[in-house]
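Exercise 7.
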Amino acid sequence: MARSLLALVLAISVGACQASGQPIHDPSGILVQPSGVVGCTAEVTTGQLIADADAGIAIEDGQHLPIVWPASFRARTVNGTVEVLDTAGTVVAQTGTNVRITGGQIDGRWLACGDGSPRPS
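Solution. The predicted structure, written as tokens, is:
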């Protein structure tokens, strides 16, 4: 009985963490992490950034991965190019460029970690 109760509590806790960590569609057109989300895997992906109808921007690295940016990032479109801006308003990514991004793949999306800024590949 105690074992069953522990399993139920664990299942509810894990489900609540996953539900509260769902990406948010930012008004600027990109997917962002909810505020306060911390922790991430330390994988790296390399590929070309492309426009994505749902996520705003995705990376093609042999597969199509919509990107979920840190909570404070925003996007804008300039002459048909989607640009991602960090907290300071600096452009850190734009479609059509090849980059490497630290993060991890979760639920078919790439979760950008750290400062979220891609590096030229």
